[in-house]
Amino acid sequence: MSASDAEKGTLDIHSPQLANFVKHEKNAVDIEVFDVQSLEKDVPVTPQDVAKPPPAPAKSAKKSTPLWVLWVLWYNAYRRFFTVVFVVNFVGIGFAIAGKWPYAARYPGALVLGNLNVAILVRNEIFGHCLYLFVNTFFAKWTPLWFRLACTSTLQHLGGIHSGCAISGVAWIVLMVVHQSKTKHIVFELNHRVYAILTNAYDTADGKFDHVGRYVVQQQAFWYTVGMSIFCSGIVLPWICTRHVEVEVELPSPKVAVLRFERGMQQGLLARISRSAVKEYHAFGIISEGTHEKHHYLICGVQGDFTKGLVNDPPKKIWTRELKFAGVSNTSTLYKRGIRICTGTGLGAALSTCIQSPYWYPIWIGSDQEKTFGPTISGLIHRHIGPERLLLWDSKVRGGRPPTMKILKEVYDQWQAEVVFITSNYVGNFEIQHGCKEAGIPAFGTLWDFGIRPHLKRSNKRRLNANSFASVSKKEESVAKGVRVHPGVNVNVPNTLVNMHFN
Question: InterPro entries recorded for this chain (predicted)?
Fold first, then answer.
C-alpha cells in the first residue's frame, strides 16, 4: 500500500522493544533504563528512588482467588442493572395480575413497547455516543475519582438495562396475550398478525374491537412503535450513516490485516465494517493520531471467515458506518493518568488513547510483535509514545508471558495511575481483573455476557488466579543471566522499563 506523509519513515524507525531478535540467547545484552515519570514536577525519579529488588519468596502453593473477589466481579454493574430492571417490572406484573394496577390492565402494549424501546435505545450507537460525550464533557478530571469510576462502569454495563428490559418486555407480552385471550379469542389470533394497530384498536374496558383512527394515534403504544422503528431500533438512523468507502489493506503477516481509511478520529471509538451493505457487520477498535490527521486504522486479526477473507482477498472498498460508536476507552478523558494493558490485536482498541494523551501508559503483550503487526503500527507507537511510558513484551523473544500483575502493580504505583483499562481474551481479562480487584486497583476489562466460556473451562487445567501470569520462563531467566548493564545504573525489573539490545 502507498505510504502517506503520516507514515513516512516507518520502515527505518529503530524500535528496541519491537526489534526482531534473531541473535542467540546466550549473547550479552545492553540495557537502557527509562524510569517512570513522577507526577510531581519537582521530584525527579532517580535510580535511588527505585525500590530494591525484594528477596526471592519461598516456594508455596498458589492460592485461589478469594471468594469475595469472585463475587464482586461476577455480580458487576451489568447484573445489578439487570436485577433492578427485572425486579421492578415483575413487581409491576404482580400488581397487574392482582388487579392493583389498572393502568397495566388497560395499556399493556405501552408497557411492552416501553421496555423494548429502552432495551434498544441503550444499544443504539447514536444514543451511546451522546451519553459518552455528555459524561466526558462535564465530569472529566475535576469530579471525585469514585464518581468518574462509576460513570465508566455505568456506561460499560448498560447492557444490563438492555437485557432486563428485553426480558421484561417479553413477560409483559405474555401477560397481555393471556389477558386478551380471556375476553375475545379473535383478539388473540389477530394479535399475531398486525400487532401494533390491532392491540391499540382493542379496548379491554368495553371489550370492543372498533377503536381506530384518532383513538389509535392517541395511544402511547402507537408512538412507542413509531419511535422504536425510526429513532431507536436502527431501522433508519444508523443506516443513513452507512457508506461504501475506499480502503487500503496492509498485510504484514498471515495473521493480521491493517486497514487504512480516510480522516482522523478521536480516541476511544470503534468502527463497524462489512462486505455487504445490510448484514454481517464486525466491530474493530480505531487507531488514529487525532481528528486533524488524514487517516485512521483498524487492526483485524484473523479469527473467522470474515477476517480471513480480508487477508486472502483484500477489498478495495468496504461498507462502514461513518458515525462511529464509543467504547469504554472513550472515558479515558475522565482520568488524570491511566494504564492501558492489552494483548495481541487488543492493541487496536487501546493505542489511540495512548497516542492522543501523554497521560496514558500502554503495556502491550504479544508474540513477534513487529513482524506480526508491521511497520505502520510500530511506527505509530514509536513516533508518539516515548520509551519512558511504554512497555512492550514480546513473548516469543522473551520466552513466555510476563509476570503481568507484578508489572502492572509497580507501573500503577510509579505512574500514579487512577485506573487500568484491559483489552485481552477471556482468560487474560479474567486473570488481570481478578488480580486488580484483589490489589485494590480500579480496572475495567472487556465484557462477556452471562456464563463461563468453554475455553475458560478447558484452560482450568492450570489454576486461574492472579498469580498465573507470574511465572517467568527458564529461557527468560537464561537471557537475563547474560545481561551487561551500563555503568552506574541500578537495574530493577520491572520497577524500571527496560529496552533490550542484542549484540
Answer: Adenylate-forming_domain
Cis peptide before 494 (omega within 30 of 0): yes
Q: Give CA 470 to chain center in angstroms.
A: 24
Are the C-beta atoms of residues 303 and 311 closer than 8 Å to each other?
Answer: no
Residues making up the chain, counted from first to last: 503
CA–CA separation, 99 and 109 (whole Å): 17
Mean pLDDT of the residues in the chain: 75
The angle, 0 to 180 degrees and rounded to 10, between the axes of the packed helices 426-439 and 404-415 is 50
For the chain, domain boundaries: 13-51+329-502, 69-123+158-232, 242-326
Fold type of domain 242-326: Elongation Factor Tu (Ef-tu); domain 3 (2.40.30)
Complete DSSP assignment for 314-382: --SEEEEESS-EE-GGGGGGG-SSEEEEEEGGGHHHHHHHHHH-TTEEEEEEESSHHHHHHHHHHHHHH
pTM for this prediction: 0.71
| Alpha helices for 194-322 (secondary structure H) | 195-201, 214-217, 220-227, 305-312
